[in-house]
């Protein structure tokens, strides 16, 4: 048998799915003893070059509670033209179009290599994509200028028939009417008054004219070119107008007195944006793109007062329950996020400021709707500019890497139930026979809505084995899971992607080694991490850490080989060997540690962690460290202080940051200018190599990481030093007696200490 | 002065109207008895009332005996106290002035007024009364009316029944027959009755009296023809005579009272004419305002009037002269009701002459007079008395060699600040007396320091915000385009200080229908930006920078905007409007910009859109002449609070209304009134006919010199103080008069009361200080000082009375009072007080011999006439055909008027056009404003300050018609055509010239309306049954 590693990889490539366990324990009891839940990471729209979509509708199981899609795992009676649903065992007639079906003439969905298949559905009207810019004008002149340019640039990246709208805000909120000639017209709202959707629509004059469009079909016919909303117009028509309008955007004209923050009505602006789309284009793909340069300072959703002398809340304040506006603001944004999500609109947040901007309160807007969250220092940085440009990047087939209004439906065979999902989604509250009562993440449903997703968007889906111990699974029986994702493609087509997977059952008592061998420790680490981060949102940090530790210890107890009370005898099999290390780094990661991070940063990190695919997530948990030296080709090295050597250049990728670190000697050489001497050209190449590699990462990653170039002793070196395992510290420096490596001035435990403790606890008979 | 002088020595002008009624004497005795009423309770009670108009606790609500009695039907036994002897004397004889001969007033007046031909005099009297009767009917339902009527009828019927002079037989019947009233009671009834009837009555009467004008007479006669006396009495209850209807049609023109026009169709009219003509009171026997005016012109016109003497009575407002400030404020700024105050409160109470001053602090002065000097006392600000805070002025007495000065107001002795020190000369006057305006002039200005500024910050230049209603109607009527086009040129003429190159005033633009549109017209923009505010429940200003701009700088953007506005809304179908949020928005904008300013709102419909300040149509004719009539003048909604906010923020609201139906002017105009703004109203606005008037108003208003964010304080010397203020003002407390803005036409009338004995030596001093922001954004204090005399002789007081100012005061106080009291009460009070003033004069100052004569003080000769006009003004005399809005409108205008304006308003100018002297430039001499002056062969021009009417008699010369209208004859004049064509001939040019002359100096542009044959209009009034009655009880 090919190794499980290959199997896992194959599966991931084909289906975009990674399970924590690839052989499933066959009873509820055994499953719970596995410690790591049966779960998977699903990338619904994983880019697949070899997957041409089929141009017809899927065949569904006729049982109303099932409606599973015909798939390669179904048993087919070619003579009777019947197929049996592998989830509910309902026997179904093929539709008339399948009359010619036979063993040699199979439709694609029955072929094993099409366990993932995509259908293009011609149902319903197609609506153009909608982009609604919500722009903060309380910016420094330079910032605003940069932002205006970015926005103007983005117009050229939009599909020409996309609808765009513009809302600007400062002390007031202005909704710009885009179709005016000769005079630019906008509707202005007070930034302090919370308005209901109805009020907003009344005030914008949308209530009456929009009536025919209320049913979610604003465009009755695709050829109807004019949309009756004055605020959302096709790009190709108002390209020039909007460019001019953006060009004339002024900074918020209201005076800001000394010692005050500008009054920024982010809350109302978002509320209006949501209300506007809600009234005009419900249930169609739309992006609300919020660009903000500071915290909301007035009205609903305010995060901090306008007095500069009161700083914005910190974790310290929050712990002490000292953040006066937080709860109210969070509630405001949550309400908005839910409304927006219910209508299938996503909210992006591009926050660029040196101080916090209230992402903590606003995070749900992006989290629940699948929107992007980008945090930068200024709009005038390449970090923002390129990230923003990348929002509109196109995939290999020239299509936007974005999809809208996805509806993920999960079906399981009867031994499994669905416990929940963690990712940029909201529950659709679809109760059904396969929904577990135990919730992990967003549970209680078998369907989730993901308002916006891209090819890398990944959800963690947790299952529960419900098969009773005494109800053996028939020999060769396999458990199956089907993921059905309805979504609006960026080309405005409606599509359905169906992924059906199956795994073997195994009796944990007799076949534990199979199960053990089929453990996917990477997926497991990410899945556990997501659970931990999800918990951390609502629980105290230490509780989450304790829970993680306990899970780890139990896992080691279960799968480690050891003699009782003999830590030295402790061994873990290969398929588990990295897991404790992942957990060690996870414990130190900004996802669970708030120390040294602002609440905004934590929200930002967690946001991305909850949506990236497995590889990226792992990088986030345990950053990658590459070493460049004259001693050999670039090599990955341990994320350890011991890897920091004077004659090395290190490249660290933490997902959020790319750090290039020149060792002491290298830095001195560079200062001496050797790279410029023809005889030391190799040194020049050495210096260049990590830069090129970094560039490669920078090119592809979204959001663009912060790029840090530093050297031994540089202040920015802290980014590296804080990540590496502190194997050498000021406490044990001399104990090691080596010159290699750099001591880290920290009291944090090192991996070594952590492992020692773990072993001790795992083998302890007391627990 | 002795009455002797008045009556005899100088009796030239001393009129004594004795209305004789021989047979009347049947009636007369009762009158006399009634007199006691006056004597007995009248004075005390009513005098008190008057002062307390505004006061809810005042005796009005619970009428004092005197009043109540009058109100009580006659049935009640005469509770009247024993008639004072004096009173009795009167009654027996009411007298005509000497001359019964019609036409020649002058003669008559000159004549010492012998008991005179009773016959003739009587006749007119009687004649009038019938006329009066019908008109009264609608006005006063209560029984008293009937009563009066009955009494009047005596006269009227007398003639009717016994056309001969012998009315006598007639009388008794009406009196006794119907009512069986004891004479005394009847009289009681009379006084009040008298007040009511006159207004309508007079107008009717006037006509009736004139043989020339049959139609009118008919009206008067309507009731008369058939019915015997008893019927008459019922008449009051009947619906108003149909004769009034036509007026509705005319309601546009402002002079309601004057407008009555009677359709020829009026039935029965002619028939009635027949009866009365022979016996009427000759209207000419009544003092002629025209004569008074002309005399004053002759005596003082064109001369220099120096204000160097305390208590000197200035020329009449109608007299042109050059006024030289020599220590007292020019009468243009400050005009008093009397220039000699009674020494004590008792005296004042006795005379009941209102002690009032009409202050027009920013009055325009002709170029021949010096503008005000500006005084700068440097950083410490103007020098003021430490105790009473009066400003340094000519009334300060320097003592101790100039080191100290004694305040003329409170007598406090203050140190002279070192920088201000100056030695005194041998008469104790500072050497620099004539170098310093504040020592030698009555009016001047101080530069204010930061202490006088809002928040201690120098004010910013004011702003004008134009707020245009762009609802369907205004777009369709072309009004929006008209305004926009006009503004393009008009904005170049924003007012500025004399010495400045360009105006500092910034401008902003808002349009609105159901929502508000603000415009960003920042000069750096390529095109204007429109910002729509839909949240009308809580209006706010969406922008700051770019909203208020310098027109020069933003000219291209503004012009662009004004070009676009009509197009932007060209296809609007929004017909609902908001109003309060518009004002709110303007105010917030000024507040945000931290400046004072003026809003120009152009509005055309009742604001019915769902928003604050939403109004509903509450016009209800049924309320007329009921106690609830006053509610028609009270504002709906929360406009008062809005007004308060506006005043607090220095936001003046100018309102241009273009109604074609009820618009609730009482509510909509409230903010305008409280903020010192001006209200303009163009009924049924038609672009082609009305735009000249509107544009002229707009131009004039925009260019007016004015002060912003003003606070006025009136300080007085000890012994009396200002107690009541009337005008387009807002008062937060009892002393500070706040005005968001004050322009050259706005006047505040102040009433003074004694609180101690005055001092004859020091006189009564008044200092009016207005703190304001000038058009260039400077903070200034304008000071007007005036010294009055005091006297223990009532005669002195009477001799220095100023009737025009008195009428101004009476009008304003009455118009204010109608908000809280039934109109009838208000009218009663006016009547009572007039009667009392005159009675007091007669009693105390006039020659005792003339027992039965009505003796008028020289200075008050025309008071009864004017008072009659006031009583008949459309505000006080509610008639169903006068739209409520019109009344509210007039009420508001009058509240802000200065003396000259009220004079013209209440006594319109009537010019005979048919006798134009084409060669001279002079305006023809006015004639008495009375219907009987109109002749069929003549053409007359009537102007009241708000509108002008051209009346053409049926047989006016074709030459004139051709000249004016370019049509061959009277018959060719289209009844529709109401405007004059511009023709190149002497008639037309001359008339235009006259119109211009009349128009100049008047705040409102008057639209000329021509009336032809069939349509008739009734002049304000002028003759005097009502008056007669007034006198009767004297």
Your description of this structure?
The complex is a heterodimer of chains A (767) and B (1034). Chain A has 767 residues and is an alpha+beta fold. Helices cover 31% and strands 22% of the residues of chain A. Chain A has 21 helices and 29 strands. In chain A, the strands form 6 sheets. In chain A, strands 8, 9, 10, 11, 12, 13, 14 and 15 form an 8-stranded mixed beta sheet that branches. In chain A, strands 2, 7, 16, 18, 19, 21 and 22 form a 7-stranded mixed beta sheet that branches. In chain A, α9 packs parallel to α15 and α13 packs across α21. With 1034 residues, chain B is an alpha/beta fold. In chain B, the strands form 7 sheets. In chain B, strands 5, 7, 11, 19, 21, 22, 24 and 25 form an 8-stranded mixed beta sheet that branches. In chain B, strands 15-14-13-12-16-17-18 form a 7-stranded mixed beta sheet. Chain B has a 4-stranded antiparallel beta sheet with strand order 4-6-23-20, covered by helices on one side. The longest helix of chain B has 22 residues, at 118-139. Chain B is globular and about 80 Å long. In chain B, 62% of the residues are buried. Residues 1-280 and 1013-1034 of chain B have low confidence and may be disordered. Chains A and B meet through β11 of A and β15 and α22 of B. β11 of chain A pairs parallel with β15 of chain B. Chain B: It comes from Zonotrichia albicollis (White-throated sparrow). Chain B: Residues 923-994 form the Gelsolin-like domain.
